[in-house]
Amino acid sequence: MHQADKSNIENTSTIFPFLETKKRIAVLLENYLKQSKKRNGQVLKQEQPKYIADQLQLNSIFKNGFQNIKNLEKFVKNYLNHTNHLKNPKYMGHQVAVPQDLSGIPDWIHGTINNPSSLYEMGPAGAALEGFMINWMLSKLGWFKGSDLSDFSEYPQNGSGILTHGGSIANLTALSAARAKLVPEAWTEGNPNDLVVIGPASAHYSISRALSIMGMGKKAFVPVPVDSNEIILTSHLERVFKEVKSQNKRVMAVVANACATSSGLFDPIEEMATFCEKNNLWFHVDGAHGAVALLSDKEKEKVAGIEKADSIIWDAHKMLQVPALCTAVLFKNQEHQRNAFRQKGSYVFHENEVIGMDSMPFTVECTKSALGTKLFWSFALRGEQAMIQFIENSFQKARNLYTHLSSLKDFNCPYPPESNILCFQFRPNQLSDQNQLALRYELINSGEFYITSCEFQGKRFLRTVLMNPETNEQDFIELAKAISNIGNKIIFDKS
Asked: 20 to 30 A Cα–Cα from 404, which one of 18, 30, 44, 329?
């Protein structure tokens, strides 16, 4: 190492004093939060990446460094100026949590201490918190048989689980476990060519992607017909199952939506569980968004029977207000988690693993951030009951939006919502799919509202996901007005 380089490294703490630097960043973040929450502010800015790169002076800073604390502060300020404002009540966009103001502190702590939680000896506090939160999730399913969530002993009758960086990895982990149960030799011998997974045609794309990653290919997913609201037709499950068997194929797993990403509607989990029990099939529930219904006495009937599943995924970075990413994959039988992966590595894998503590042997990932800390923190800021109230309020807001839009003659709402997701169209008889997309682009380009769109019932719909606790009915009124103004202009321009 050159002497100058060594000197720069050694003097970093002098150039950027820890407390002073963090204090300045904290002030910038506080101002950002205040600005983000203003209803009359922009929800997002649509800017070209080259423009942002130039504004941030990336080339110069990358080459020369910040050099002093003022430049670092300026960079953070400019960075925040080019971000979206999820805290704005008019954010009704993607299924990404709107965290509480202090939810970023665990990432701050983890980034400072860098204790990965995948091995207990490397991150004991983070691993313990992950174990506690997994036990809490298992308890909601009836899969934790103890009385103390901080008891990490291995009750044979307990389920098990781990936290992963996102639902795609979680689905991959669950399907890997399903394969290990049906074809344990696949880990060493490779996949046989007769394995399939069946589920609703509306299943999330991460299911077929997981199958491709596992070497089975997208074709291994066999879709079951859905009704007009894209809910699986359980009456067709038996037929598809028999067709698959007649082709000398084996069903590795059956997948259910709880809830569907596009519509927010739930598959009939109880019926699907009964079918799987009858035919001795692995039952997997993709509960990334909707598993939170378990927490509410008002909403939990929507996931009735979910405890009969073999595996479940549950995103914390959606409805549990955790900053991305954090997803649980849960197993009713802890042996299924043990058998999903069979890695060897004498430098990390030991004979005395405690399931749920050393999580590395049980997931695609090796090193993980302190996901349990993030999840625990989200609850610790306000308590479990406040989280339940947030979930119930979010679901109710979708029903309120549905009521409002349904009262307006220009809007088409094809179904009453079952979660906090709602699809709708503006003047579908006059606006094509491309027009609906154009309406959405015009709306978000204005910066006033942030909504998404999706394909539903073979057509293009506008879509809201109500994640912000501050969004209210006045915002719904203004959203409808803004859409009407843009939509009517598109119709006028066409004529």
From this structure: 44
Measure the CA–CA gap between 25 and 53, rounded to whole angstroms. Answer: 20
Q: Please name the residue that has the structure tokens 């925040």.
A: 80
Tokens of 103: 């939810």
- Compute the distance between CA of residue 413 and CA of residue 415 in angstroms, rounded to an integer: 6
**Tokens (6 digits) for 304:** 């009735």
Q: How far apart are CA 94 and CA 76, in angstroms?
A: 25
Q: Are 430 and 491 in contact (CB under 8 A)?
A: yes
User: Which residues partner with 198 through β-bridges?
Assistant: 222, 254
With a CB cutoff of 8 Å and minimum separation 6, the contacts of 311 are 174, 177, 178, 282, 283, 284, 285, 329, 330, 331, 332, 336
Q: Which amino acid belongs to residue 246?
A: S
Instruction: Give the three-class secondary structure for 493.
Output: helix
CA 107 remoteness from chain centre: 17
Q: Show the domains of the chain with their CATH numbers.
A: 3-85 (no CATH), 112-380 (3.40.640.10), 384-494 (3.90.1150.170)
Per-residue pLDDT tens digits for 86-129:
999 999 999 999 999 999 999 999 999 999 988 888 899 999 99
Report CA Rg, the chain. 24
Return the DSSP state at 322. P
Contact criterion met (CB below 8 Å) for 418 and 265: yes
Which residues pair with residue 283 across a beta bridge? Answer: 254
Residues 6+ apart with CB under 8 A from 168: 206, 209, 210
DSSP 415-460: S--SSSEEEEEESTTT--HHHHHHHHHHHHHTTS-B-EEEEETTEE
Q: What is the pLDDT of residues 139-165, one digit of tens each?
A: 999 999 999 999 988 888 899 999 999
